[in-house]
């Protein structure tokens, strides 16, 4: 019997991946229910969410964001919000997009190394903090950042590979 050609859905995620992802959704739901019970009302705003993307190998990636974190005694509310961040790795560059609604451009502090980007907004109105591991080495001197309509975009050129040269033995 000829083998059935996988549909585009099957080629992205196999059913084992879907089972793992659904279990993660159930776990996040239980986590949020417990957080709401423990935190109660009047503790301040609660931000929590997740995004799903697909890596270069076609595997799903689930990223959580917000100000609710797991603690030793259950969920804890943090003062700083972890923003929703997307990292786009292309041939020559890495772009990082972060959602930072409700802040002024001048309040955003960025720090970049060859392997990471730190986003910090220590504002009285709303504080954000996120350490982003970059998928490739970048040249920190090439970093450019723009902020428009609550979205921060940081563009970084990838670090050039070390070039060698041939030597002639004399």
Quote the beta fraction.
35-45%
Q: Any idea what the shape is?
A: globular
What is the CATH domain class of the largest domain?
Answer: Mainly Beta
Order of helices and strands: HHEEEEEEEEEE
Strand order of the largest sheet: 1-2-3-8-7-6
Helix content: 10-25%
| pLDDT < 50 runs, ≥5 residues | 1-10
**Number of E-state strands:** 10
Named CATH architecture of the largest domain: Sandwich
Instruction: Give the class from helix and strand content and strand pairing.
Output: alpha+beta
Please state the average pLDDT score: 81
Task: Please indicate the count of domains.
Answer: 2
Rg for CA atoms:
21 Å
Number of helices: 2
Largest sheet: 6 strands, mixed
Would you tell me which CATH topology of the largest domain applies? Immunoglobulin-like
Distance between the termini: 67 Å
What does this structure look like?
18% of the residues lie in helices and 41% in strands. With 170 residues, it is α+β, with helices and mostly antiparallel strands. The chain has two domains: 80 residues, no CATH class; 81 residues, Immunoglobulin-like (Sandwich). The strands form two sheets. A six-stranded mixed sheet has the order 1-2-3-8-7-6. A hairpin with a 2-residue loop joins strand 9 and strand 10. The termini are far apart.
């Amino acid at each position: 019997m000829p083998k059935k050609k996988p549909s585009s859905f099957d080629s992205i995620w196999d059913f084992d991946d879907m089972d793992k992802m659904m279990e993660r959704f159930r776990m996040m739901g239980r986590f949020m229910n417990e957080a709401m019970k423990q935190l109660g009302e009047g503790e301040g705003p609660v931000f929590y969410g997740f995004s799903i993307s697909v890596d270069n190998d076609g595997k799903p990636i689930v990223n959580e964001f917000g100000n609710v974190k797991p603690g030793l005694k259950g969920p804890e509310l943090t003062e700083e919000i972890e923003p929703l961040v997307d990292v786009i790795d292309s041939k020559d560059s890495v772009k990082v997009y972060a959602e930072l609604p409700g802040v002024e451009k001048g309040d955003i502090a960025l720090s970049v190394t060859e392997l990471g980007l730190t986003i910090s907004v220590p504002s009285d109105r709303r504080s954000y903090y996120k350490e982003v591991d970059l998928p490739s080495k970048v040249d920190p001197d090439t970093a450019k950042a723009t902020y428009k309509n609550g979205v921060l975009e940081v563009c970084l050129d990838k670090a050039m590979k070390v070039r060698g040269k041939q030597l002639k033995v004399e």
